[in-house]
Fold:
Amino acid sequence: MTRHVFAYGTLMFPEVLAAVTGRLRMGEPATLAGFRRWRVRDRVYPAITEEPGASVQGQLYRDLKPGELGMLDRFESEFYDRCELTVTDGDGQSLSAWAWVLRPGREWMISRDPWSPEAFVSNCLDQWIARVPRPWDRRRSGPLRTLVLSRRRVRRIDKP
Structure:
């Protein structure tokens, strides 16, 4: 099973990935063929949907730990499915990587406007990092609570 991740949106930025997983790592350029990236309606993040002939540029993060994949699943919320897809790295090599794809039936969420990484960095990156829940950081989330990011709100789930 692969432990590589293809990031096409907010997770393309190492600062965001580090805020979610607690570990700074650098990605490398990669391409996902057969998908298009869209801005999610009334949000600052994107989603991808299948579209023949299209492609998405993003970042490939290699060899994530299983626990980090779980943190990313929680970050990505119920609107996305984690799918194993084939991406092409900067050297032209094809490999399997996980990516979070908009769930079928959720197409109403996309605006049909392209999402701009540059606009996200200029307008939203700092605020986005500040609001990302950090379940790995007990000082931020408390020893008995886990913060779960829902795309609509942040909920606190109390553990017994």
In short: The longest helix spans residues 66-76. DSSP finds five helices and seven strands in the chain.
